[in-house]
Fold this protein.
Amino acid sequence: MKKTALIAFLVTSMAYSQSNDQKMIADIYKYSLTKSSCYSWLAYLSNSIGSRMSGSVGAEKGVQFTKQQLENLGLDRIYLQEVMVPNWVRGEKETAYIIDNKTKTNLPICALGGSIATSKSGLTAEIIEVQSIKELEALDAEKVKGKIVFYNRPMEPENINTFKSYGHCVDQRFYGAEKAAKMGAVGTIVRSMTLRLDDFPHTGMQSYGDLPKEKYIPTAAISTNGAELLSKKLKENSNLKFYMKLSCQTLSEVLSYNVIGEITGSEHPEKILIVGGHLDSWDLADGSHDDGAGVVQSMEVLELFKKLNYKPKNTIRAVLFMNEEFGGRGGKKYEELSKINKENHIFSLESDCGGFSPRGFAFQCDAANFQKILGWKYLFEPYLIHNFTLGGTGSDTGHLTSTKIVKAGLSPDSQRYFDYHHAANDTFDAVNKRELELGAASMASLIYLFDQYGID
């Protein structure tokens, strides 16, 4: 073949491939926006099952429901992967109030995950307010001893990426009790991780680190309105006291499961692309955004391929991870068994940032693969998916360590996510059907391109 003819052939082939890709992606979005099941799946998870705290009856019901829905899709393989999970329970609703000159002012709080209970009569002590762990550790221990430490550093409002703001203040929630206990504090209160001023306390996992159990102290989140009021009252009277009562406890571990469904690759079944979210939620609500949305979007990727009669070259696997919120055991177990089975993952995609309008993807990969990905950007621009960045991609898929793998995370608009994150208002009515479906279509489109063209 002459050089000019070869060039013409390559140009024609490239144009044909681009046309096919555009058509396939258009079909994906059309089906997702008109016929997909993800919103009805989420409705059942949220409204009929409710919260799915790992170790709970709700989590077990979530496992059985999602497994059944995957079976209904006619996949090549559906199975459960055993994983032992913690079983922490909140108990009765928490109580808290300020005691100021014999006047009691109630405040909304909730125990942080893993906290111990107060005594049955509750805990009363003076409060010391700090903005950070660093500020606490700079204090004389005598100023802290016998008091409740109040961490009141807010999320930074100036960051457009709200996950950056979350990352800059979440240390006080996770490590706050451990650090305060080492200085003799008897409890901690942490300002909720949200940019909104409201009356919803936001829970989340905390750790006692290497403290012996007899040194554990009760720890709770306080709503942002509550934190503002408490801070104001402390400025008026630094000697006021704070009362809180927590009834939480940690029970014996429970057997649970990752839920897995897959379509076997027609050319390279040994090469695996996974898409996933976490099936567990916190106990205060049904976890529709965190992470019911990611679960049903991952399932929807497989439904889209089945309904559109797309036969992938590589194996495409949806993994619904258990226990992301309270230790990440599902992701760790999946990676452990992947190593034992010598599985070869070439791509992973995680959705764990809510069901809001998709804006793009974050990637963990080398420069060559990122340049390849940027070459696909024009395919997503008609759907307003334009933000392709290097960055964090997800905690469950973060455990994967295949020889060479590209990792991605769906990046929805993040402005409202922390209004609901880990709070009692993370419910089904907070999710927009169209936004959820657009996210699922975006995920399926990216999986399709990696299936077609692989990684470098």
Remarks:
- The chain is about 40% helix and 25% strand.
- The two ends are 28 Å apart (CA to CA).
- Residues 25-86+253-453 form a domain with the Aminopeptidase fold (CATH 3.40.630.10).
